[in-house]
Amino acid sequence: MQRTLSQIAAMCGGTLRDATFSDQKISGVQIDSRKIAPDVLFVPLGGANVDGHTFVEGSLAAGAAGSFWQRGKEGAPTGALIEVDDVLEALQKLSSAYLIESGAKVIGITGSNGKTTTKDMVFALLHETFRVHKTQGNFNNHLGLPLTLLSMAEDTEIVVLEMGMSDLGEIALLAQIAPPDISIITNIGESHLLNLGTRENIARAKLEIASGTKPGGLLIYNGDEPLLPLVLQEIDSSLPEGLRKFTFGLENTNDDYPIAMMRRGSDMMFSSQLEDETLFSLPVLGSHNVTNALAAIAAARTLGVDPEVMKKGLAHMQLTGMRIERVVGVSGITILNDAYNSSPTSARAAIDVLAGLDGYSSRVLVLGDMLELGEQELQYHFEVGQYAAEAGITTVYAYGTLSAQSAKGAREKMSNGHVHAFVDKSEMIDHLRRNLKPDDAVLVKASRGMKLEEVVYALRDEPLVLEKGV
Hints:
By secondary structure, this protein is an alpha/beta fold. The protein contains 17 helices and 22 strands.
């Protein structure tokens, strides 16, 4: 973003305190006073234990070209300050105004699982044809989304935005900041039941993206999820005029669905009802990722991307880490790193991937706690353990107090010698290294707060403790 301070003040509804700084050039924004670069606008956000205004004077001295300052707050330093009623809201207004001025189309993506993977797929399908910008990492909330918009180049044609939430009203705000031309809902799972109580409320929260889509825009949603059409009927009067709808999924009742699908090495090969002459290669395992790809393909098709271009883009896509990421350890063991997030729905999908692998001595599942599931969390963990046993997993490792229930569920159909529960991560890693073999496949799946990537890194970087002769 290249603007003057006076332009930024107008865009965010603020007031420049000293008009002599009107023509001061701004190139982007920064919320971390430790990362100040020349010409940036410092945004002094408040935190649980610190007020960003404390760092305004130092940021200006370090080279920031200007800063927001909350109107009425005492202690303002001299210099290039824009007074605003609320710093966060000013940042959001600035990003929204910048998006409008850029003219970029918006593809908004939400869902309980698969948002980041689908975002990466959409970007891969579009970037050969358009100038595309996308959410980095998980910058998908009321702060991360504005920062994503303000970091895009002036000539961006399409911005692909992941829209996350933990409660009602949050996606509505994100869609207000950046109204989508195309909206995608990947699925409805159990994440955030702690806040929302029911899956119906989760569906209502996700479908706020539909109400926020531009008139005449397109809603692409998972047609295998029965709650979505039910809630769409419920909110019909609030939907934008001329909203078009498109469904994807595994069932042949959808507008697009796979008509051929198979695993080849670490890739999924598939073609679909609407792209029956194109065999796509997807460099990530799982039928659930094929359905995510169908959503991305629908968006690209709407924007006029040629199927052969889509095929090339999908084959060479770069996935954000820890989403069934295949890693080979120093001992040769195959590790599937899916430790970024977890829920009952995504855990079952990942277990299906592990169970479908051929050519391995054992298929070993390492489960960590699934967080924010609400009152039924113990039952959900128990059922995931049962599911793993029924899927034919060789050995189950459970880490955490909640995952002890997963171990209990697995033991109903597996012998005790193939189910292990731990509350100490180091002990579990040691047990894994002493019992795994180089020709095993290991899936590591947990919510982000469990930090089970530490298990992945240990198995990747440390040799297995092999018995003599193995």
